[in-house]
Amino acid sequence: MKPTLCAPASTQAHSRLAGLEPVSSGDKDTLLDRRTVTRAPLLLRLAKTMVRHRIRGGDRLVEILDQLGLLDMVVQYQLGRGVGFSVPLFRPDTCWDQREVEDYERQLIHLLCRLLERLSDVVLFDCGADIGTFSALVCAESSHVARVIAFEPNPEVAAFMKHNLSQLPVPSEAVTKAAGCFMGTGHLEFPDYDSSEHARFLVPGDGPLEVVTIDSFGVRGANVAIKTDVEGGELEVLEGAAETISSARKCVVTVESNPRVAFRIRRDPVECLRFLQSLRPFNFVIAETSESVETSAPLIKDAHRPINNVIGWTE
């Protein structure tokens, strides 16, 4: 996706309610059309254990269970601090046992929660929320989040995101729109190298999806955490959050560093870090390695480096 030309955030006046779809119980009946259980099926847990121990046949067993319709259900997992989290096993991208849920972005979430320990009443913006996994795990580990605003443009998972946000111990807002640097429309496309829903990226222009900015929600002067995982649109999300970041008392930001995405959009993730530093001083580390990051050189030098997450925070 080519970088989008964005007008300054201060010129983009917009009601914060325009991008909002309040969490309601109206989606619950649709969500629970499928059978809901409190534990993943034994055979799925066996298959996942085989995969983790690199025993042949684990992935094939998952395929067989799916073909037999034995995964046509929702599992209600219990996380820390009383957070409930519903996972649709029938969806390939979220066919998870509890171990997989708990391990999801574990190093990034743990480091983020450590940084939040010195803050209070944090507003968490979850951009690319999918079914709300990141928000659920952060709220399960940290008591410092006071409000969650989650963005997910994929209508197929909207009900699950809303339901999972409604189970958080803090007020939440489910925004079934894409976060970007402009107020408008667009559509999602699959990259050539990945057909999973997690890989879809926003293409601005004509389309059925609405695009909003973080700044349009009017959060000023608060402690803010922004998670960006939007398949190449991270810089645009941050540009649309410039006033929110600049005015925040303290700010923590996460940026995914994905080599395949960087090569597709022909832009290194370091551009996100440089943009943040143009707003105010930030420190950066790679969450998975705790390695400090300098903005003088690209983060990605070849397409074979692993996917990492960079986390930045203000002093």
Structural notes for this entry:
- By secondary structure, the protein is of the alpha/beta class.
- The chain has eleven helices and 14 strands.
- Strand 4 (122-127), helix 6 (133-141) and strand 5 form a beta-alpha-beta unit.
- Helix 5 (106-116) crosses helix 6 (133-141).
- The longest helix has 11 residues, at 42-52.
- The model is unreliable at 1-5 and 7-29 (pLDDT under 50).
Distance between the termini: 33 Å
Q: How many strand segments?
A: 14
Number of domains: 2
Poorly predicted runs of 5 or more residues: 1-5, 7-29
Largest sheet: 7 strands, mixed
Widest beta sheet: strand line-up: 6-5-4-11-12-14-13
CATH class of the largest domain: Alpha Beta
- What would you say the CATH architecture of the largest domain is? 3-Layer(aba) Sandwich
What class, by secondary structure content?
A: alpha/beta
Bulk shape: globular
Features:
single chain, 315 residues, alpha/beta, Rossmann fold, seven-stranded mixed beta sheet, four-stranded mixed beta sheet, 11 helices, 14 strands, globular, disordered N terminus
Quick overview:
This protein is an alpha/beta fold and 315 residues long. It folds into two domains: 26-101, no CATH class; 104-313, 3-Layer(aba) Sandwich (Rossmann fold).
